[in-house]
């Protein structure tokens, strides 16, 4: 048996291939990004998905053998095995530009507060839950992270160690 906390195992492609009913599948991850954010499954065609620990998903461009006993493999991507799946900051910044659904755009003041980790009241007529947060940077709309929208408030999900005063 391998140590779940240090070994990466590839996600099963479908529910028929998984042994643990709580474990996410590649198909479910692709469906999540497509249904929640409008990111087409083809966006991830060159990537493999890996789990290390319970519900900590990583994304890797390539196809190494499974399992892999290393400290890191690609980038952290998604948290599953909780009530609501949560994309990581890295995933939002890397793939958020492909999102067409549940994207909230912030002006300068709101973006400064967001990257500093502040929660703010905000009107939003979209779905509640995790959103891709964007802002204008150097003349282009860029994803800056993940926010949680509930009860009229956009809650910054920028990790404490990544927060910045700008």
UniProtKB/TrEMBL annotation:
InterPro entries for this protein: DUF7122 (IPR055546)
Region feature (Disordered): 1-23
Q: Which residues form the DUF7122 domain?
A: 3-74
Domain of life, per lineage: Archaea
Q: What is the protein name given in its UniProt record?
A: DUF7122 domain-containing protein
């Amino acid at each position: 048996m391998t140590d779940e906390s240090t070994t990466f195992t590839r996600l099963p492609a479908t529910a028929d291939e998984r042994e643990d009913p709580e474990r996410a599948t590649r198909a479910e991850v692709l469906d999540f990004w497509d249904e929640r954010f409008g990111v087409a499954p083809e966006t991830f065609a060159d990537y493999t998905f890996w789990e290390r620990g319970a519900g900590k998903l990583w994304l890797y461009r390539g196809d190494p053998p499974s399992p892999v006993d290393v400290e890191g493999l690609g980038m952290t991507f998604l948290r599953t095995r909780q009530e609501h799946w949560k994309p990581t900051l890295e995933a939002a910044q890397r793939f958020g530009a492909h999102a067409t659904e549940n994207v909230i755009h912030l002006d300068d003041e709101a973006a400064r507060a967001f990257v500093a980790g502040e929660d703010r009241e905000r009107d939003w007529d979209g779905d509640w839950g995790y959103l891709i947060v964007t802002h204008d940077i150097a003349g282009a709309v860029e994803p800056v992270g993940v926010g949680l929208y509930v009860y009229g408030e956009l809650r910054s999900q920028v990790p404490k160690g990544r927060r910045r005063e700008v």
